[in-house]
Design brief:
- By secondary structure, the protein is α+β, with helices and mostly antiparallel strands.
- It is built from three helices and seven strands.
- Strands 1, 2, 3, 4, 5, 6 and 7 form a seven-stranded antiparallel sheet that branches.
- The radius of gyration is 16 Å and the shape is globular.
- 9% of the residues are buried.
């Protein structure tokens, strides 16, 4: 089952955790945790937002997205992580964390014939 976690609980999650975060109850896009960042009085994480296409730069990304829309071409999803920090103003009050069973249930839902 999916869980809602505090920042302190989320900081214990392993790499590869699928989650969304935000202020109560307004969550971001789905992300995949790469690693945690901790320091004296601050914290954050590196995460991949798979809701984008893999590309060398934003120009190539937009070109690929247009091509995908127009021709049905397929490109891999983004796999580069971005940094999210508590001191950057990102609201990190609650984390909606998916467990493996949630992901499997979602895939199964869409694979039904």
């Amino acid at each position: 089952m999916a869980r809602v976690m505090t920042p302190e609980q989320f900081q214990q999650c392993p790499e590869g955790t699928v989650f969304a975060y935000g202020e109560r109850w307004c969550f971001s896009s789905l992300m995949v945790l790469e690693s945690h960042i901790t320091g004296d009085g601050y914290w954050g994480f590196w995460a991949v937002n798979p809701m984008w296409v893999q590309a060398q730069d934003s120009g190539q990304a937009f070109d690929r997205l247009e091509e995908m829309l127009e021709t049905g071409t397929s490109y891999p999803v983004e796999d580069a992580a971005s940094k999210f920090m508590s001191y950057d103003g990102d609201k990190m009050e609650a984390f909606f964390v998916f467990e493996q069973a949630d992901i499997e249930a979602l895939v199964a839902t869409f694979n039904r014939k």
